[in-house]
Amino acid sequence: MYKKICTAVISVFIISSCATQTNLLNDSYGSVIGETGTHGFWIAGIGQTETVNLDNACGAGYTASKTQTVYSAKNILVTMLTLGFYTQRDYKVFCSKEAD
């Protein structure tokens, strides 16, 4: 009984600790996903950065409207399985048509 309760509590903690960070770059509401991907970091990403060229992600005629970084349950599971040595973050770049 105790083992089932602990498993349920740990599962809830893993699922509920997901996070999404959004950066709004302009006031456009009609945006579409331009690029998605995953970045990997070593030792929990301490002092490490990854960059995405927003012009290349959106293409001609589009401009970046917002970016998102997602720390999902899948990313948490990978981090737990590697004991924190390897951490993943998913990212999304949203694009909107350039104003004429």
Supply the key terms.
3 helices; 4-stranded antiparallel beta sheet; about 40% strand; about 100 residues; alpha+beta; about 30% helix; single chain; elongated
The rounded Rg comes to 17 Å
Helix-strand pattern, N to C?
Answer: HEEHEHE
Q: Taking strands numbered 1, 2, ... along the chain, how are they ordered across the largest sheet?
A: 1-3-4-2
Question: What's the count of strands?
Answer: 4
Coarse shape:
elongated
Total of DSSP H or I helical runs spanning 4+ residues: 3
Average pLDDT score: 85
> Share of helix among residues?
25-40%
Describe the structure.
With 100 residues, the protein is of the alpha+beta class. The protein has one domain. The protein is built from three helices and four strands. The protein has helices spanning 2-16, 54-58, 73-81; strands at 19-24, 32-42, 62-71, 86-97. Strands 1-3-4-2 form a four-stranded antiparallel beta sheet. The chain is elongated. It starts with a helix and ends with a strand. The model has no long low-confidence stretch (mean pLDDT 85).
